[in-house]
Write a sequence for this structure.
């Protein structure tokens, strides 16, 4: 089984299986961080994300499977405020820690966006990511414009599945 993760507060995660295709897809759950000041008003809801992973683990019997995950590495943009960049890496760290606890030893891959996008011929166009995910998995839950993060999580997982399986 393979988990693809597009990290971030608007990110997503997807579970894929070589034999059964796309099994699950979910948005990264977030929660208020307890303050109404500053730029980072929300953060990853670690408990809710752990619940998603636990539910998938039980439903698909991960104990009987070798589970691998691929998480996109956040690339800091020089035009973003420092606090935004810090929140990107905070989110990435939380997601990485939660997912790492559910995968096989040495089953974690961190990948740069250009490396997983290249085989699909993708660039920065989010609609192209949605279209590609729908070509691979016609029932993928990526029909809305804002579902581009789900599409990218699916494609990241598919990329890893293709590399390993």
């Amino acid at each position: 089984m393979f988990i693809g993760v597009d990290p971030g507060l608007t990110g997503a995660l997807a579970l894929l299986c070589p034999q059964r295709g796309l099994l699950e897809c979910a948005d990264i759950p977030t929660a208020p961080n307890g303050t109404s000041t500053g730029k980072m008003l929300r953060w990853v809801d670690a408990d809710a994300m752990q619940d998603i992973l636990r539910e998938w683990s039980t439903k698909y019997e991960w104990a009987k499977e070798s589970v691998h995950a691929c998480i996109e590495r956040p690339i800091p943009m020089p035009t973003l405020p420092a606090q935004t960049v810090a929140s990107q890496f905070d989110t990435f760290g939380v997601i990485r820690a939660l997912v790492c606890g559910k995968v096989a030893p040495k089953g974690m891959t961190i990948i740069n966006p250009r490396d997983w996008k290249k085989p699909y011929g993708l660039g920065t166009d989010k609609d192209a990511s949605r279209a590609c995910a729908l070509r691979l998995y016609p029932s993928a839950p990526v029909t809305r414009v804002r579902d581009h993060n789900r599409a990218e999580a699916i494609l990241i997982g598919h990329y890893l599945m293709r590399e390993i399986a």
Observations:
- Residues 2-164 form a domain with the Nucleotidyltransferase; domain 5 fold (CATH 3.30.420.10).
- The helical segments are 46-59, 82-100, 113-117, 126-136, 148-164.
- The chain has a mean pLDDT of 87.
- The CA atoms of residues 81 and 97 lie 25 Å apart.
